[in-house]
UniProtKB/TrEMBL annotation:
Protein species of origin: Tessaracoccus defluvii
Cofactor: [2Fe-2S] cluster; [3Fe-4S] cluster
GO biological process, one term: respiratory electron transport chain
Start and end residues of each 4Fe-4S ferredoxin-type domain: 150-179
Family of this protein: Belongs to the succinate dehydrogenase/fumarate reductase iron-sulfur protein family.
Protein name (record): Succinate dehydrogenase/fumarate reductase iron-sulfur subunit
Length: 248
């Protein structure tokens, strides 16, 4: 089939961006959004033009690098699916596909479809990690963790850091991301030793860098890892507990 692509082009962070329009023939419906961009870049290179810059890595829905906005929807029209798995099967022959970067004031455009998601890294540096000196590796059963607790922690640890929650939120909030980090680590014995310090540092950085939660849950609908809205509730829960504890 033949598709028309309207793709965002922007030379650098301070440049004025614009949409470019291109027609592509021979598009197979099973192709992903990223494969459509691959086909576009082949066409651009063959014609002596600069290819469109975009990020991708594993293309298996694991790395979180591939996020773009397709027809106004973060990642694409299908809920809870990363851009690399968004297929073109829903587009009829002759349709127009508009592809642009993730849109958030916290994610400035670096070039074309590539944005700077460094603010999420700032959250991880502030508190989304474990700094406890655990010494040598203990036996696996030294610190027992109930199966349901371990499974719940892993569910929140599934966050791939793609930034879809921030781009989907009209306020540019990162509460789903932050709550996933806080909950994942608070449920496990050794990381929980730093629970108070972690909550204070991470929530403080969250308030400084991102907007307030919109309370509508757009983030859950966009999240390809299926992080539940309970992660957002965890932000205020951990904030409150940190304010009532005296020790780290």
């Amino acid at each position: 089939m033949k598709l028309t692509i309207e793709v965002w082009r922007q030379a650098h962070r301070d440049a004025e961006g614009r949409f470019e329009r291109h027609d592509i023939d021979g598009v197979e419906p099973h192709l992903s959004v990223l494969e459509l961009l691959d086909a576009l870049n082949e066409q651009l290179i063959d014609s002596g033009n600069d290819p469109v810059a975009f990020e991708s890595d594993c293309r298996e829905g694991i790395c979180g690098a591939c996020g773009v906005t397709v027809d106004g929807a973060v990642h694409g029209p299908e809920d809870n699916v990363p851009s690399c798995h968004q297929r073109l099967v829903g587009y009829p022959d002759g349709a127009t596909v508009r592809i642009e970067p993730l849109r958030s004031a916290t994610f400035p455009v670096l070039r074309d479809l590539v944005v700077d998601r460094g603010a999420l890294d700032d959250l991880v540096r502030a508190g989304g990690h474990v700094a406890v000196n655990a010494g040598t590796a203990p036996d696996a059963d030294t610190v027992p963790v109930p199966e349901d607790v371990a499974e719940a922690s892993l569910d929140f640890a599934a966050c791939i850091g793609c930034g879809a929650c921030v781009a989907a939120c009209p306020n540019g909030a990162a509460h789903l991301f932050a709550g996933a980090k806080l909950t994942h680590l608070a449920l496990l014995p050794l990381p929980a030793l730093e629970r108070t310090r972690r909550a204070k540092a991470l929530v403080g950085e969250l308030d400084e860098l991102f907007g307030p939660c919109s309370l509508y849950g757009e983030c859950e609908q966009a999240c390809p890892a299926g992080i539940p809205l309970t992660a957002i509730a965890a932000v205020n829960h951990e904030r409150f507990l940190a304010g009532t504890r005296r020790r780290l």
